[in-house]
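Continuing the series of single-chain predictions for the mutant panel. This is the parent chain; the variants come on the following pages.
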Amino acid sequence: MNIVIPIITFVVGAVAGFAIGIFYLRKQFSNMAMDQKQIQQMARQMGMNLNQKQLNQMSRMMNNMNNKKKKIIESRYGK
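Parent structure:
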């Protein structure tokens, strides 16, 4: 009996932690959109200077990536 309670507690904690982790990741993926100012700032930090055409291209790429991730998450875990 002394060993059963810690095992049950561990299993319940692992399941609860997994559920909370999935909820948190879903929320983070939905909030991951970056505007053009943030993209420009990130590029400057990496030593790049983007013109307007490149900035628009990066914005489109980021939006497409976010849309694909949302579709994958929704197909795996539901809405």
